[in-house]
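Recall that a protein's primary structure is simply its ordered list of amino acids. Everything else, from secondary elements to tertiary packing, is in principle encoded there. The following example makes that idea concrete.
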Amino acid sequence: MHIPSGATTEMELVTFREALEAANTPSPDYDIQKWLYVPNFYSEYRYILGTRGEKPLICIGINPSTAQPDNLDNTLKSVERIALGNGFDSFLMFNVYAQRATDPDAMEKTCNPLLHRENLEAFRYVLSLSKEPAIWAAWGTIIEKRPYLPQCLQDMVEAGQAQNASWYCAGAVSKKGHPHHPLYLRKDEKLRPFDVTAYLDTF
């Protein structure tokens, strides 16, 4: 279980670029040829966790939990399975907000603009890894937990538009149009197009 130890505004954040440089430096804890883990240590926030490849699927949840390289939780095991089953050779787990919390109800009540800015920087980097970025919307109903989350997502959508990204979902959407969370999907679930702009108009 990960319960935030305090507000991220009270912490000294490692910028994404600093964290990326460290993540590309050999680590005794995991194989950096296989994993992209930013920051490359367990902390109160996480920008990116995934595998390296030529054709990654970018999966977007709401906030990170406890997963680390070689120690994926059930959500990320499902993400990897769906990515490989849809013709991708790797996955990159990303989140609308970077604060770690096992229980989304423990997320901070107010958005930390600095953490959001660095998370967006990380997202632009992830988008740059593909000529045609593929993004899997996979946050479920959890986006309703905090009022700042839709705006954070809006910023990400705009970043994706600048890179001509394509959005997808998997499984049934909710009555309110929320895309399905990765858990409890069939192993052979196929991605299908998701109109994220129309979705954001519902908020």
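The helical segments are 16-23, 74-85, 113-128, 149-162, 196-200. The chain has five helices and seven strands.
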